[in-house]
Amino acid sequence: MRNALRDGFEVDEMASRTEAVELVRDIGSFDVAVIDMGSHEVGSADCSLDGKEAIRALRKAEPGLGIVAHGERPERHLANTALQAGASAYLARTAAAELLKRAVNAALAQESFVDPAVPPPGSRGKLTRRQREILQLIADGGSSAFAARELGLSEETVKTHTKNVLGRLGARNRTHAVAIALRESLIE
Predict the structure, then answer these.
(1) What is the signed CA dihedral for 75, 77, 80, 86, rounded to 10 degrees?
(2) Average pLDDT value for residue range 108-125
């Protein structure tokens, strides 16, 4: 990242998202922040703030700051999460250096930018709110009957939603769907 931005940008790196937020809050005068959205192991230097919280804290500390969220993969829900938290741009780690420059320049100009590899809204793989609710209940150990009672639906409707979830995620079974959804932050 440093190499991609060294021409035309002064780059300061922080060891953690928490340190970055503190630096912006204490010193200010930054134009753009690139925030790593990846999850970190417990006990790492950056376990206190997740990417979404860091974006919100940066936005609060410096409302005019351009923020580029640097995420794991080019996936719609990851981009949506970052943009809803207040990022100006979302870029996957797999993106070319030229796209990083474009994202930073867009954030600098207070324009929105989303990695072109991110599927468009409504594309295959996206789960509806109801599908996420059902999958969350399944992940929490609930049965189809339990999910139906909790959500005021028929058990047959829950089974239909579950079948559609399997198809959208390309999962072999409910357990596989839960694993995919957890890995991709579709559920908690």
Answers:
(1) -100
(2) 79
Judge contact between 51 and 35, C-beta under 8 A.
Answer: yes
What CA–CA distance (Å, rounded) separates 130 from 155? 14
Q: What is the pLDDT of residue 183?
A: 80
For the chain, give the mean pLDDT: 88
DSSP letter at 128? Answer: P
Q: Which residues contact 112 (CB under 8 A, 6 or more apart)?
A: 83, 88, 89, 106
Determine contact, residues 123/166, Cβ cutoff 8 Å. Answer: no
Q: How far is CA 51 from CA 4, 68, 114, 151, 187, in A?
A: 22, 11, 16, 31, 16
Closest CA to 174 of 148, 146, 149, 137: 137
Tell me: the pLDDT tens digits for 132-181? 999 999 999 999 999 999 999 999 999 999 999 998 887 899 999 999 88
Where residue 43 falls (left for φ over 0; alpha for ψ -120 to 50; beta otherwise) is left
Question: Residues, the chain, total?
Answer: 188
- Has residue 42 got a pLDDT over 50? no
pTM above 0.85, yes or no: no
Distance CA 5, CA 8 (A): 7
CB 104 within 8 A of CB 125: no
| % the chain with pLDDT above 70 | 91
